[in-house]
Amino acid sequence: MRYIRYAFWALVALILIVVCFANRGTVELRLLPDALADAVPGLSWLGTAVSVPLFVALMIGVAVGLVIGLIWEWIREHPQRVEARRHIRHERELEAEVNRLKAEKHEGKDEVLALLDQTG
Questions:
Q1: How confident is the model at residue 111 (pLDDT cuts 50, 70, 90)?
Q2: Domain check: are 64 and 5 in the same one?
Q3: In this structure, are 48 and 25 located in the same domain?
Q4: Contact call for residues 55 and 23 (beta carbons, < 8 A)
Q5: From CA 107, how far away is CA 99, in angstroms rounded?
Q6: How many domains is the chain built from?
Q7: pTM of the shown model
Q8: Which residues are in coiled coils (predicted)?
Q9: In this predicted model, what pLDDT tens digit does every residue of 38-70 receive, in sequence order?
């Protein structure tokens, strides 16, 4: 199974390398359009263009999408994590109670032995 996983990731890496080589042309990235950046006085620096290869822009888009998806999923799963912590806490309390009851049982003598000690 481990080799299948390695082969899968090697294939993914190979595909990414081919995509990167196929998209080496440069593109300009801007956070805001020129008209909007010039309209707001303090935001003119956001209209500055940065030239990067197209594959860098693609990989940045994929990375940003993954981060947003992970954060979204982490927020969505919050109730399940809270419930799991509650169950774990309850389980620990029950285990502690069982251990306490076992200790109490073994501290005192058996009822039959206690009666024999009283008569003897």
A1: low
A2: yes
A3: yes
A4: yes
A5: 12
A6: 2
A7: 0.61
A8: 84-111
A9: 777 777 777 778 899 998 998 899 899 999 999
CA dihedral (60, 62, 68, 71) positive or negative: negative
Q: How far apart are CA 29 and CA 56, in angstroms?
A: 11
Q: Are residues 43 and 89 in the same domain?
A: no
Q: Are residues 45 and 82 in the same domain?
A: no
* Residue ranges making up the domain that contains 109: 77-120
- pLDDT on residue 8: 95
Tell me the pLDDT band of 115, cut-offs 50, 70 and 90. low
Say yes or no: 82 and 56 in one domain. Answer: no
Dihedral, 44, 45, 47, 53 alpha carbons, nearest 10: 170
Q: Is the same domain home to 43 and 64?
A: yes
The residue behind tokens 């032995």 is 113
Amino acid occupying residue 42:
G
